[in-house]
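Regression check, zinc ion case 351:
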Amino acid sequence: MVEVSLIEQLQRGDIKAFEKLVESTRQRGLNIAYGILQDPQDAEEILQEAYLQVYHHIGQLKAPETFRSWFGKIVTHLALRRAKEKGRFKTIPLEDLPAAGCSITEGPEYFLLKKEKQVHVAQTLKTLPDEYRAALILREWEDYSYQEISEVLDIPLGTVKSRIYCARKLLSKKLIEGGC
Amino acid sequence: MVDVMCCEENVSAYLDGELPPEEALAFEQHLRSCARCRESLNQLQALSGAVQALPRPSVNPWLTAQIMDRLQASQTVSDLPLTRLLRSWGLLSLLAFGALFVLFGPVILGFFSVVVKDFFLLASLVVKISRQVPPGAVNGVTGLALLAGALVAFYGFGRIYATLSQEELIS
Ligand SMILES: [Zn+2]
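Current build output:
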């Protein structure tokens, strides 16, 4: 990873290294923030905040190779906090989530994507509970492993597995109900 | 026959390449004979593809510059020797306040409750007394010292607040 040497330079106080680090990680950070907040402006504000925290707390990062999950954690926490403050999406209460083990009976043609379906998927994604959307976004958009997601969200590995499954389950259920 | 393997949560984990190697192998074996799991896998795969294909905003090209600006702005303030001194004062005043509170907590609280309750009475008393004090150098200096003391105390509370709110940052 390119970042490791940049982080070491940054920890020695090299501000140029910080600039390069921002350049090389900002799209990733924006994706996470946007995935959770679903609002480009909010996502960018959160990202700026996240980088200021990265700069001020980089000394606390003991192993530079874990930057990915450390950075993901900062962005995710800030974004989840902002989402909570705004409470703008009507999400499904956790107790209404499907029990694990029930199966998806409808065919994959529901998810075949045309433009309008894409809009529909995006709209439906917004209605997932924030923590579920966060886990799914980290997995699908940024290819975080379950281990990394468990570090980012501070939840056990088994919970990551079921949370991602539940997020998918819920998403497909709502897509089908939405008549798409 | 419903296999123990027929668990959609495992199908989802398999799709993510997150089953342990031996479990993944066993699951692949199972897939050959289980149409239901094959179907689930197809569906989850399609859904996953749909999510991955969703559009994302691209980074505003000035973002890095904006971040660097904010950083430099906060640094020029925080790197001045004076701000550094003041910041350490913040910590000192926190300690001093803590010690004071441990020693004289009830007295301080009692004093403040009187101040709050009988504010107007106290204020008019202070005004009355200060009118009766004859103007002179000694009294003037005492008055100024009291004023400065009040300002320092006020500032100290501000620093305590700032120090406390800084501690709240992400770990
Ligand atoms: Zn099966």
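Comparison notes: Residues B 3, 5-6, 30, 34, 36-37 surround zinc ion (CB under 6 Å). Chain A has two domains: 2-86, 94-177. No diff flagged against the previous build.
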